[in-house]
Amino acid sequence: MRAHQIMTRPVITVTPDTSIVDAANIMLQRHVSGLPVVDTGGKLVGVVSEGDFIRRTEIGTGRKRGRWLRFILGPGKSAADFVHEHGRKVSEVMTKSPLTITEDAALAEIVELMEKNHVKRLPVVKGDQVVGIVSRANLLQAVATLGRQVPDPTADDDHIRNRVIDALDKNDWCPFGLSVIVKDGIVHLSGVITEERSRQAAIVATENVAGVKKVHDHLCWVDTMSGMYLNSPEDEDMAKAS
Fold it and tell me: At residue 24, what are phi and psi to the nearest 5 degrees?
């Protein structure tokens, strides 16, 4: 399989000038653990993730180093830590020049990059524009969906997938972080909804796409106020049966 067959799109992004508070709220509300950072032209300039919020003065987790270690590391490291712990904008805490992959990247290549560089997500780019993102969750979904099925999805499945994404993406109720996997015309929908009626709308829209034989619902409902989430009824039933 390739990146374009499992990646999440459209991608939720922030800008370098987005505030730390706004970025944290977006991640909580959209139920994502990282966000690509793009400039005004849409070019990828960084990635901000949950790990960037661990060492923060607001929660009393700033680094406390002894005098000797501070001397060894030098003032530059202390200055960098201060910016990361006190910065108010995404540009001050994000990882700059992040690793990226193309739409044709094989899953084996993606996993190797993640393991070698200790990252949990990789932006998918076309030129310098972000067109998707592949996270560990996408890989997990691929394993759960296709782990016992060979060969890879066909070209027809790819066409169906593109039509499903196009059909959902144009609506304001489209799930956040939409992930669509298709095998033999059977569609698996993953993502986040904040309104339960969006679930049925997404299923119906998918069922109306030519070539779709069946739709499996893995959409997760999230309460934007509390961050509480519920798995889809289908996934809940599967969990009870196992």
Answer: -65, -40
- Pairwise CA distance, residues 93 & 205, whole Å: 39
Do the Cβ atoms of 122 and 103 come closer than 8 Å?
Answer: no
H-helix segments, 89-232: 107-117, 136-146, 155-169, 197-207
Question: Strand locations in the chain, DSSP E?
Answer: 34-38, 44-49, 95-96, 121-126, 129-135, 176-183, 186-193, 214-222, 229-230
**144 burial via Cβ count (<10 Å: 0-12, 13-18, 19+):** middle
In the numeric block, the tokens 């996934």 are attached to: 235
> What is this structure's pTM?
0.68
**Percent of the chain at pLDDT exceeding 70:** 90
Report the SS3 class of residue 33.
coil
